[in-house]
Amino acid sequence: MSSRRGKKKARTSRQYELGDEDMISRLPDELIHHVLSFVDTKQAIQTCVLSKRWELVWTSLPFLNFGLYDNLTPKVVSKFMRHVLSNRNHESQVSHLSLSVRNKGLSRHLLEKYVDYAISHNLHCLNLDLPHDSKPVNLSVFSSKSLNKLTLNANLEKCERISDCWDLPCLTTLRLKGKNGYGEFSDNWFTMKCLPALRKLRFDDYDLSKSSFSFSLPALTTLCLNRCTLPTTVWDIPTLKSIELHGGQLPQNLNEIFSALVNLQNLKVVLTSRHNQEYVISCPPQLLNLIIIAADYYPCTCNTIVVSAPKLCNFTSFGVITAMVGVPELETVNVRLQGVFNKIGWTSKKRARLRLINMLPGLANAKNLTFDLDSIKVNVCVCVCVYCRLIL
Q1: Which residues of 116-158 form beta strands (DSSP E)?
Q2: Nearest by Cα to 29 from 64, 53, 57
Q3: Residue 313 CA: distances (Å) to CA of 167, 168, 299, 332, 355
Q4: CA–CA separation, 95 and 115 (whole Å)
Q5: Secondary structure in 3-state letters for 20-82
Q6: CB-based burial label for 52 (10 Å; 0-12, 13-18, 19+)
Q7: Phi/psi at 91 (5° precision)
């Protein structure tokens, strides 16, 4: 009996060696690298114990993602990161580097060393997240001829200011995140230079009130401001075609800051419960597409918006708002409540219906008018309930 079991085990092992391995291991390295790009580098290295096939896969990973590692000591974190860089295949490129290590054991010297290593290996995407109390970073470290996407979550006030520090001729996307609420963005201590290819710029949690908002970015077409205090001066960025405003403090009349945006075609505004007032969106005449989103709903909020855009073609509203659209001719209109109907009471449903009714006259010239199911439910439900009450 034991001899039979031994033969069966040997046969099974032989079959495995001949090719009865798992389907994932049969994939080419490029596909395995793509799968491992969704996990932390520490987890990617742990796959080396699966089989001989996986022993060296991690050494040629083009995606290096270093997480928070809050449960590890600074010494262990630094040792691990040194191990990764010293033992990987140095002929392989590093197309993506994500450093989210908020561990105080990561010194400025090591940080700049890792970034410099990745840049020397044809880095395309860099995501850097530093703690609030981190030491100043030399921005010239990010100079690269290949980098096209940069996300920086740090106190830029602490960064060392060096003339022409942003030497990134191929950078197309830049995202700057403030730390601990609003980070200050001032022209006095931070300038953007040598970014001739930048097309998309995004700010998160920044106070831009002290900025002149005049950038020498000839290719910039898209600007996104998320939870930012907007500058009060006229925005001198004539190349802009698309703007997204998410939350933050908005001026009552956006025309005051949009007047110089002569090429603006797309505008997206996200309102929150703090925006309890009337807004005037008097857009440049060339605006074609407008999206207004009420991120949440409270019965006491107004969210009334007066829109003046003579050439507007497409208008979309999400949530419960009252948009007074003064447009001669609209191509398409989409009105969506996004599930609000199921979350509000009877009184709020009546208010929601009233706001929708008040918005309809301004949409009368639309060639195509679309309501989602919740919008129809609000009108039908309120009408039926009122009718039943009258009968009773």
Answers
A1: 125-129, 149-153
A2: 57
A3: 39, 37, 30, 7, 22
A4: 12
A5: CCCCHHHCCHHHHHHHHCCCCHHHHHHHHHCCHHHCCHHHHCCEEEECCCCCCCHHHHHHHHH
A6: exposed
A7: -85, -10
Instruction: Give the strand pairing for 266-271 and 289-294.
Output: parallel
Measured distance CA(390)–CA(10) in Å, rounded: 85
The predicted pLDDT at position 260 comes to: 79
The DSSP result for 73-121, as a single string, is -HHHHHHHHHHHHHHS-TTS---EEEE----TTS-HHHHHHHHHHHHHT
Residues 6+ apart with CB under 8 A from 354: none
188 to 153, 180, 191, 212: CA distances (angstroms): 20, 21, 8, 10
Q: What is the pLDDT of residues 272-312, one digit of tens each?
A: 765 456 666 777 778 899 998 876 555 445 556 777 778 88
Give the sign of the dihedral formed by CA 193, CA 197, CA 199, CA 201: negative
Compute the distance between CA of residue 119 and CA of residue 96 in angstroms, rounded to an integer. 10
pTM: 0.82
Model confidence pLDDT, tens digit, residues 152-167: 887 776 665 555 467 8
Q: How far apart are CA 86 and CA 68, in angstroms?
A: 21
Alpha-carbon distance values, 233 to 131, 237, 257, 355, 356 (Å): 32, 12, 6, 32, 34
Where are the chain's structural domains? Answer: 29-129
- The C-alpha atoms of residue 236 and residue 301 are separated, in whole angstroms, by 32
Mean pLDDT by 10 residues, the chain (392 residues): 47 43 79 92 90 88 88 84 92 92 69 90 92 67 89 73 68 86 63 81 86 80 90 82 84 74 89 63 80 65 69 83 72 79 68 74 81 71 39 39
Identify any residues that bridge with 292 across adjacent strands, giving them in sequence order.
269, 317
C-alpha 258 chain-centroid distance: 23
Strand order from edge to edge, sheet including 278-282: 278-282, 304-308, 322-326
CA distances from 240 to 78, 201, 214, 222, 360 (A): 42, 10, 12, 6, 31
Predicted confidence (pLDDT) per residue in 21-31, tens digit: 567 778 888 99
Terminal Cα distance for the chain, rounded: 86
